[in-house]
């Protein structure tokens, strides 16, 4: 019987930075990237949770800071010891609510926070990123159908922003993952006691017949890191949620 073919790790010798990597999609992406041969750097606000995550997946290093603090963010990238290949941003949480009932500052933050964070990361990371690497953002498909509230507008601003930034940041690539409901600690914190009901609702209605797991989003993220032909693109991963809700 012939020996099975050995596959080379997709990210061997590369370095992946995950902004918001202590849990959920960020942690699973770090785990997957490490399994594919990458050295991984995790950041987040909670130092203790970062240390646990680091021990769990074998991260090269961790850094605890608020990614929305531009001074702390600049200091982090300045302090990295060598060039990096990929940066994924999973930090932040969505904002919901009727537009006319929200204060202007809240609406402004909901529409701009992810864009501003991505710009700050791009400015600080670009000089240390190898050509062909990628800046990878997280968005959602939840607002694709226009409805009252800020979520639709906040969702729709990201794809054209990513495409424009990809042109400016080249040869570093920029891509967006748009997810639906993913069974993460963030989802649990947003839904509280309604979490189990939401899971059952999605199992009954989604074309795939189950909820999307963080590891599945991580698999897409690592693919986008490895595939150097992809930039300026948005990739949906929601189990068909946008078509049935």
Question: Would you spell out the secondary-structure blueprint of this structure?
Answer:
Layout: E1 15-19, H1 24-35, E2 39-44, H2 47-57, E3 61-64, H3 70-78, E4 84-89, H4 104-125, E5 129-140, H5 151-156, H6 158-169, E6 173-179, H7 185-191, H8 195-205, H9 214-226, E7 234-237, H10 241-244
Parallel strand pairs: 1-2, 1-4, 2-3, 4-5, 5-6, 6-7
Helix pairs in contact: 1-9, 3-4, 4-6
Task: Give a nutshell description of this structure.
This protein has 245 residues and is an alpha/beta fold. The protein has helices at 24-35, 47-57, 70-78, 104-125, 151-156, 158-169, 185-191, 195-205, 214-226, 241-244; strands at residues 15-19, 39-44, 61-64, 84-89, 129-140, 173-179, 234-237.
Could you walk me through the main structural features you see in this protein, from its secondary elements to its overall organization?
The chain has 245 residues and is α/β, with parallel strands linked by helices. It has a single domain (15-236), classed as 3-Layer(aba) Sandwich (Rossmann fold), CATH 3.40.50.720. Helices cover 44% and strands 18% of the residues. The radius of gyration is 18 Å and the shape is globular. The model has no long low-confidence stretch (mean pLDDT 91).
* Rg for CA atoms: 18 Å
**Number of separate domains:** 1
**Would you tell me the structural class of the helices and strands?**
alpha/beta
- What would CATH call the architecture? 3-Layer(aba) Sandwich
Name the beta content range: 15-25%
First-to-last CA distance = 50 Å
The overall pLDDT, averaged over residues, is 91
CATH superfamily: NAD(P)-binding Rossmann-like Domain
SSE succession: EHEHEHEHEHHEHHHEH
- The helix tally amounts to 10
Low-confidence stretches: none
Strand order of the largest sheet: 3-2-1-4-5-6-7
Q: Under CATH, the topology is which?
A: Rossmann fold
What is the share of helical residues? 40-55%
Q: Largest sheet, described in full? A: 7 strands, parallel
Shape: globular
Let me know the number of strands. Answer: 7
CATH class: Alpha Beta
